[in-house]
Amino acid sequence: MTREWIHGLVALTVGLFLLGASPNFAVLRNVVDLVGNVLSIPEYPAVVLREFLRDLYLWSGSKSDLTRQLESLRDENAKLQIVNSVLTAERIRAELDTRMEGARVTLREPHAWWNEFRIDKGLNDGVIMGLPVFQNGFLVGRVSSVSSFSSWVELLTSSSLMIPVVVEETRELGVVVGDGEGSVLLTYIPEARGIEKGMKVSTALVSEILPPGIPIGYVVGDAEPSKSGYVTYRLTPGASVGKLYSVSVLKHSRSILR
Amino acid sequence: MMHVACWLVQDMLSVLTGGILRIPEIFLLSLVYRLLTQERDMNLSVIWGAFAGGLFWDLRWVGIPGFFTLSYVCVVMAAIWAWNALPASGRTPLVIFFMFWAAQLVSPVLSLFFPGRGVAASRWVLFAVQQGCVVPLALLAAFFFVRRMKDHNA
């Protein structure tokens, strides 16, 4: 026990001496450097591991930064797409506003009541043959002849006006034609294509003057089969064909024709 | 040799944490463990081992020799005194755990009052983190010690 205490006290004394006297030893810095250099060999794996962990931390940090930036850019892109859509819609609406021209029905002859009528817009107003004519947003007919100050419009109910159409619910293609007596028919529809009452009919893409998607009316009658294998449906036009006082003409636009 | 390995492990863990975190005194733990398990005539080597280990730790991490040297020797001397003062019936697993834990407590407590990097508050946080690692280590050492004693008595 005594030996242990003697050795312990000697060790403590030497330690105290080192602690008190070490600031005066200039050689101490060299000793510290030497110990550091020697220990750098066994410490090397720990240094490498620490650098690896630091790089991993920085990499994960930069990755999360990139993810945040990506999400921010996606969000910004979505907002810009919405802004672009709104601007495009506003541009189209403005263009349509400038192209839609109101016209007054100036003549509707009794013997051709269901075939044609005259409007007070002509070539000088930008009206050309084939332009669609609307009432309440529905197609009512097409311009069939034009003079400088007036035009004749052929009605949907005319038996000589045939307009390619599509049934919107089934995408079935057909032709709308009038019977000359006030009715509108949907023809050339193959049998058993699932067309039902209430389905919407609009123009199909066949000409640049008559754009696709213009609403015409709704299917109201049952199928009337024919010998050719096609069926005919009766339509009710969206426009009030019987009461026409004023209509709208979608004027000619060179930009759209292009 | 085991003490050298423990010292190196403690040193490497300090390198790994960049010297920011206080690593548990694994070297000191191994010395105390040896004190409690070996014959008394081997205690001298433990005393001087603590001296050498503390000196090298000072040279590596403190730059002023004497601080850890003194605290390591003090802990070893205190452990020798406490162990010899305890009767055989008092050497329960709980007491042994407290001895291992107390051995870990002295140097960090002293370093709390030593000027160093960081503000005082962060030093207390680091001390708490170190103690959080120390308690499982002390429990593990106590477990091995008790098992060794049981094997020895059997």
Topology:
The complex is a heterodimer of chains A (258) and B (154).
Chain A: H1 2-21, H2 28-99, E1 100-107, E2 116-119, E3 132-135, E4 138-146, E5 151-155, E6 162-167, E7 172-178, E8 184-190, E9 200-203, E10 215-219, E11 224-225, E12 230-237, E13 246-250, H3 254-257
Chain B: H1 2-16, H2 26-37, H3 43-62, H4 67-85, H5 93-112, H6 120-153
Helix pairs in contact in B: 1-2, 2-3, 2-4, 2-5, 2-6, 3-4, 4-5, 5-6
Give, in order, the helices and strands of chain B. Answer: HHHHHH
Based on DSSP secondary structure assignment, what is the total number of beta strands of chain A?
13
Could you tell me the CATH topology label of the largest domain in chain A.
Thrombin, subunit H
Summarize the main sheet of chain A: 6 strands, antiparallel, barrel
CATH architecture of the largest domain in chain A, please? Beta Barrel
Estimate the global geometry of chain B from the Cα principal axes: globular
Number of domains of chain A: 2
Low-confidence stretches of chain A: none
Largest sheet of chain B, described in full? none
What is the overall silhouette of chain A?
rod-shaped
Largest interface: A-B, 31 and 33 residues
Q: What value does the Rg of chain B take, in angstroms?
A: 16 Å
Instruction: Supply the number of helical segments of chain B.
Output: 6
Structural class of chain B: mainly alpha
- Report strand order across the widest sheet of chain A: 1-2-5-4-3-13
Mean pLDDT of chain B: 82
**Helical residue percent of chain A?**
25-40%
